[in-house]
Amino acid sequence: MPNAQSAANNSDYRKGTDMKKQKQTILYARLSVDDGTDRESNSIQNQCIMLEEYAERNDLKPYVHINDDGYSGTGWDRPGWQKIIEEIKADNVSNLVVKNLDRMGRDYLRVGLYMEMFREKGVRLIAINDGIDTLLGEDDFTPFRAIMAEWYARDASKKIKAVMNSKGKSGKPLANIPPYGYVKDPEDKNKWLVDPEAAAIVTRIFNMTIDGMGPRNIATKLFEEKVERPSYYMAQRGIGRYKNTCDTEHLYAWNWSSVTQILGRIEYAGHTANFKGKTADFKNKKYVKNPREEWLIFENTHEAIVTQETWDLVQKLRQTKRRKSNLGEANPLTGLIYCADCNGKLFNHRRSTSSPIRKRDGGKEYYCKPQNFYVCSTYKRTSAKYNKKCTPHVIQTGLVKQIILELLQETNGYIRENKDEFIELIREKTIIKKGETAKTHAKRISKNVNRIAELERIFRSLYEDKALGKISSDRFDEMSAGYEQEQEELKAQNLILQTELEAFNTDNSNIESFIELVNRFTHFDELTPAMINEFVDKIIVHEGEWSEGRSSETGRGRGTRTQKVEVFLKYVGSFNVPDKRTPEEIEAERIKQERIEHERKYKREYRRRMLDAKKNEEKQKPDSAA
Q1: 236 and 125 in one domain?
Q2: Closest-CA residue to 408 (of 562, 572, 544, 593)
Q3: Residue 187 falls within a domain, yes or no?
Q4: Considering the domain boundaries, does residue 402 fall inside one?
Q5: SS3 at position 473
Q6: pTM for the whole thing?
Q7: Distance CA 258, CA 175 (A)
Q8: Domain containing 379: what range?
Q9: Counted domains in the chain
Q10: Within this chain, do residues 275 and 354 fall inside the same structural domain, yes or no?
Q11: Mean pLDDT in consecutive groups of 10 residues from the start of the chain, 626 residues
């Protein structure tokens, strides 16, 4: 009689026999969660005991136990079953013994195909409790047993889906295993508790993303620091489906897809998301993801590992594709800079100093100059077609970073010295902005209401024309459908506008959120990707203007170029630190800038005169060929 350890071993070869040297009897046992109340009587150990007693009693030796514990009979990718098929195809099996025919599977078509293969290979199939023994001849009732087994699986699947559907709608998590970073509450299996050790890694992954690192770089970093990968970490603690099959040789082999999966899980913000996916049917166990709109999300069901603001920021960063330079670095400003004229995004162009040497027409070699600037995407896409729909709006990346850093430094200093004044300024600006928006919304709502009433009158008139036979039913249906659709769209628009108007009456907590964000950063000496992602909402770049216009000959700008750049900060929008200088100081600064511009203009004119003189001198030289 086998003990529990030998019964669970899929390769329990007895008495030193070798399957490949002589044909053997396979004693196959299977158990799944679909067996319901029959799990105890159908346990792997009980099945193995019955099968071995039968083999001993009928002299079916030598034999070997092969089991599948925790696998449904509707699927055929079970490791134990696949091993049996390999041995049968290799002509190493004489007998296959199961407790019941449904232990083979619960798909009567596949069961029939496998039984046909057994006959071709000369394998004797025995189902003890069903009285099936292919050596004694065909049993006419066998196909019906297979059909009944499939019906049982179908019925069990429906009941399980009904239970899971009810559970999911009640707000309880459908996931049998909590995500990495959580564990089940010992007192309530439907509640999750934070696992501090794993949660620290999850928090760090989110922070590294905000710092500008991509999933692959994060995975590499965790591997270098020898951080246990999630599957191994959970397997070591007896959690998850890999606890018995986890690869123990590669403990720190983090995969970028694992990082991506962690970053996309809304559960880390403290919410439960049910119905994220499904299986096609009870036979096909392939998992299919549901669209986001089909998810059912219950907020604040457990302790959050990251804040909602952090989770939202990371999702925004992941939606923006950042092309890496040949140095393997992505520009953190990408996705934040927009054109002031066409509202299109600005493209980033970069070339490092490591670019290859190129040759001019004369054969002279030179190094490609390093470049790092942004240009309007609309202009870039249409400039080659000679139908430019926008202007370049070119701006150097370093200049944008300098503007952001100076703004943050000034704002930080102003808040620390004049916190109350800052709060009052933002509140006044918000009230003005809300007032303007409220007026626009109120006008739009009133206009929509009038149009809805007008459409109602039109609809009634059409109905009267139909009743009097002035228009046909088809014509009425065609016209009324368009009016009804317009009416529904206007009602939906008014609902959104009214909701925004009501939100204006609530207290603005964004100011405190911004102050908390400033306090999280102890210094602003250097601009980091984390500071850009945390503080900057968007950047609006205007076209540059030249003090002397453009040259009629070259079409290029002349003089000093100035360019307006608007930086919108999160929570507070566009903010400029109040100018505390006296009128005398402002006037002195203006005079200083005029003097600097005058000196620049003099130098530009001097260079032009020298260049013109050189050109005239070249023209006056006698032709050497003559």
Answers
A1: no
A2: 572
A3: yes
A4: no
A5: helix
A6: 0.56
A7: 17
A8: 336-393
A9: 5
A10: no
A11: 40 42 87 58 82 91 90 83 91 91 80 84 89 76 60 62 72 83 88 92 92 88 91 82 69 88 91 79 66 83 90 84 60 87 86 56 60 87 70 91 91 86 78 64 84 85 82 80 82 77 56 82 84 89 83 68 89 82 84 85 84 82 56
